[in-house]
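Revision sheet: structure tokens.
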Amino acid sequence: FSLSSLSLSLSLSLNSFSNPFSSKSGMDLVKDGWFHERGELWKGQAMSLEVKNILAHYRSDYQDILVFESTNHGNVLVLDGVIQVTERDEFSYQEMIAHIPLYAHPNPKKVLVIGGGDGGVLREIAKHESVEEIVICEIDKGVIDVSKKYLPTLAKGYDDPRVTVHVMDGAKFMEENQDSFDVIITDSSDPIGPASVLFETPFYNAMHASLREGGIVCTQGECLWLHVDIIRPLVNSISTKYTQVEYAYTTIPTYPSGQIGFIVASKGEREEGCKVPVRKPSKELQKTMKYYSTELHAAAFVLPAFAKRAIFGDDE
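Predicted:
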């Protein structure tokens, strides 16, 4: 499985949390003034938000895009019928997926974001003064455009002069940029349909090749309440390539089961892995954060007993 073939496989799949039924219209899920999210990966349950106003709805080259103003969660971005962002709780995901790998690295200078077109991860990376270059590869320009218009508190991440935007396949970019990045953050789609490649070993091998020695990857890692059958095989398979593979999580009310995890993997030895931050935010910077803290960084890796056994085995 070459990087070139991986690039082709990823050509439709590097947006945040998209639904495998790409023809689904988000408007079909709006009934009686409520948006009802239902997904193949969380069968038997649904998330509903009351709709105040439809702000935008159209189909990009890749997916159905819906933005609505909700009654209690601010503006909401929906891709192919699946909630990506609400203004009320987005910070818990954006802060943790960015700051866990960045504060686990002693001196991150060059960071790559794959997906993450809403700009929230960029906003958080920009808080790190040591970072000299931030590169984002988002395949769907429609996500970038709609976020800049309707999610300005996230999309302000694009305003930082260190940010370079590539509207392209992230796998192709990594193929062209080996041994280049200190941290790679992948805000990826769910592992069904063409997006399943993002949860397979070749994609992690591609990230490994694009990392510098001592680098860290942090990827969207699904839900420990719903997806340990997906998480464990992936953790096992990439453990042969990465020096250490760990799992952390955050709470976020509008994601399935109110929780989402992160696979955190490092290239090169680390005494404490990524569980213990090697840097911490200043007092002034910490005041700007709504979720992340040094204490929570370490706590995020403490898994419930059932999840620890299911992901890492009975010996853990």
